């Protein structure tokens, strides 16, 4: 995590299952195919999660992604490599990234 | 690691819980009852991170806003009293680094606390590329400078060591062949020549002629100077006192001395005359008449020329091929003698001498040539 960008990474709400309360974390990188999530909550690898976040002016809700890998850092935070699994949502993310993007919160 | 954290919490119960947790985490926790209290001691406490209990007044959003206004880069962590991801994300958008969920436990807070402390403060990542480039340039410039200095120093050392040393000339050819007297005055050497009956003023550095004064009525055979007068001995044994003006105006004359001297000098108090043929050295009273005080016999072998300074009499001895030093008080005793290298030339005939500033000057003839040279006064 780049300290200078720590609180500018994209806050994200993470649903792991329908019967569990959502978790939260920050997306440290986003591409149309995959993303990286930093959270202090533990999520097993292979689990499919639904992400809700904002990317520029676009809002994404329940973007489905699979936890590809999970690595715990020295502080106890988990770095998750996520793969978006819905082709349509990938396209939307691609469009959001390719279009005019402004900083979150602006 | 700097571990002071500030905790804004009004509830005594929560504070007790949090105090225990942060103590176990190794943090130095500073508690504030509310935002105003926190801001009042914020500067003094200088915390690495601020934790705030959610659900109290003012709302966490306002606390985040005010704290970020004071310290834009400090990690702010709301402590949620229930697990509410929507609120957590909202607070993170409002400036929180992260949010801790209830129940607050050591395990729950540890990663957040450690991450907050690791990210604490304004970490400025400089664009060091330019800096490194500049450093490289500086280092390169320094290296070039030192290399050049070393090279220049070595070159200078080598040049000084191995190049032939510029020899200061100590011998000068004269454009006339019969010098008879020499006087050193400042940067000028004044030489008399009997054949051309002239006084030649030479630049002492290169012996270039500055001025020539003709003496049609006098054949100079010896010459000396006092502070205010020039004394010229004629071939007839008469010494003329002349002013040190541009024309060397005659002032007075002595009677003709017998034998006629061919050397004359002034030791600052008395005048001395010498005749090289007989070896007679005469001490004379200062005055226009140069009355004889006492006569001495030159103690060496063959007197060629005589001069003096305020300490010694100096003689060039053609017999010994040496410079002879004698006492002013006892001219008949040789104090020392020093071999004169120019006497290696068998044709050298020294005819005049002068002592000035630690140097003994000679003028003479070497075959058909006139020459002047000097040596440093022997110890």
Describe this structure in a few short sentences.
The complex is a heterodimer of chains A (about 110) and B (about 375). Helices cover about 10% and strands about 45% of the residues of chain A.
Name its key features.
heterodimer; A: 106 residues; six-stranded antiparallel barrel; 1 helix; 6 strands; B: alpha+beta; Rossmann fold; 2 domains; four-stranded parallel sheet; 25% helix
Give an account of the 3D structure:
The complex is a heterodimer of chains A (106) and B (379). With 106 residues, chain A is mainly beta. Chain A has a single domain, classed as Thrombin, subunit H (Beta Barrel), CATH 2.40.10.220. Chain A is 11% helix and 47% strand. Chain A contains one helix and six strands. Chain A has a six-stranded antiparallel beta barrel with strand order 1-2-3-6-5-4. In chain A, strand 2 (23-30) and strand 3 form a beta hairpin. The model of chain A is unreliable at 100-106 (pLDDT under 50). Chain B has 379 residues and is of the alpha+beta class. Chain B has two domains: 4-119, Response regulator (Rossmann fold), CATH 3.40.50.2300; 171-376, Methylamine Dehydrogenase, Chain H (7 Propeller), CATH 2.130.10. Chain B has helices spanning 12-25, 35-45, 60-70, 85-93, 106-119, 128-162, and strands spanning 4-8, 28-32, 49-53, 76-79, 171-174, 179-185, 188-193, 198-203, 209-214, 220-225, 229-234, 239-243, 250-253, 263-266, 271-275, 280-284, 292-297, 303-308, 312-317, 322-327, 334-339, 348-356, 359-366, 369-376. In chain B, the strands form six sheets. Chain B has a four-stranded parallel β-sheet, sandwiched between helices. In chain B, strand 20 (322-327) and strand 21 (334-339) form a beta hairpin. The longest helix of chain B is centred in the middle third of the chain and has 35 residues, at 128-162. Chain B is rod-shaped and about 140 Å long. Chain B starts with a strand and ends with a strand. The model of chain B is unreliable at 122-126 (pLDDT under 50). Chain A binds chain B through residues 1-4, 6-7, 11-14, 21-24, 26, 40, 52, 54, 74-77, 104-105, and chain B through 75, 83-86, 88-89, 92-93, 95-99, 108, 110-112, 114-115, 118-119, 123-125.
